[in-house]
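re: that complex we talked abt at group meeting.

here r the seqs, copy pasted straight from the sheet so there may be weird spacing, ignore it
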Amino acid sequence: MDVEALARWYGRNARDLPWRRTTDPWAILLSEVLLQQTQVARGIEYWRRLLDRFPTVTSMAEAEVDEVMHLWQGAGYYARGRRLHALSVEVCAPGGPWGGDLPSPSTCDDVVAGFQSLPGIGPYTAAAVASIAHEVPAAVVDGNVRRVVARQTATLKPTAGDVTSLAQAWMDDAHGRNVPPSVWNQAVMELGATVCTPRAPRCSDCPVQQGCLARDHASGPTAFPAPAKRRVITERLVALVDVDAQGRPHLVQRPSEARFGGLWGPRYLDANDAAVVDECGRRTKAGDVVHLLSHRRLEVEVWAGQTEHGVDPANKAISTLDERVLHLAKGA
DNA sequence: AAAACGGGGCT
DNA sequence: AGCCCAGTTTT
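got the structure back, here u go
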């Protein structure tokens, strides 16, 4: 791997992303959490919203988790929002180890370990924030890096250890050639995101095509890495939507450990639940909603009824599925 | 090592 | 219709 060629390429081709214009560790941490399994275009929108309301870690620690979740609404993977709030509380805890400051080289012996000890921060995010905000030479391993490693080495299913070792060897090489860790990590990810893409890699534009074993491999670059098989499970549910005279639905807050944890929505029953016959008998069917997640297909029967005390859903965090369910029930 | 966790965009 | 996305946590 010609690390200097890739670093030069990044200097010329880096996308102008808003978090690349700041050195504030909190803003960078927020961007990395938002970008977990989320595409950049979507991350930008939520990054601006959250940073506008919570410009510092302290400002989030002083807020209620429900306010964070309301701003998180629609972004998915809601545990991220809940854990980010927990992180802010932990960092700002009086008498705690952090005293209101995120881990940094001046306060922390091992910055990567410091970040990874916090809620919602795993190996990727810890290395990303430490390298981008503090120039710690820790290699990040995300989906882009895995793909670049698999293709450079023409390895069908590289182990996590293989990927981490090679990524760190590249980082050490780059760091030794005075390429800043912030630049190197983002250069590898940028290559994966814009050139070494999953479906249609642009090998002729690639700054590290020499030495890429997948490029001229008989099965072609897209054979690497081998696709993982995934199965989708269908789940049948019944949503019970009761509305009051003012048209406001009865909502309950989901437990934090449940799917859509911490968000509000109507009551749900498993379609096989014995209580379904009784509950649906007292309501009218409003229709069906099919909601697709990456690993689940939710088939929801929506049954509408009446209640004395609905609530105003306007200031509550509600999942995209429940937005659709409530909208359907309103028409019934 | 595998499963669970959201939602949207692209081919 | 299938696959992917700047992953983390739990089992």
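couple things i noticed - DSSP finds 13 helices and six strands in chain A. Residues 37-39, 41-42, 74-80, 199-200, 259-261, 291-296, 319-321 of chain A lie near DNA strand B (CB under 10 Å from a C1').
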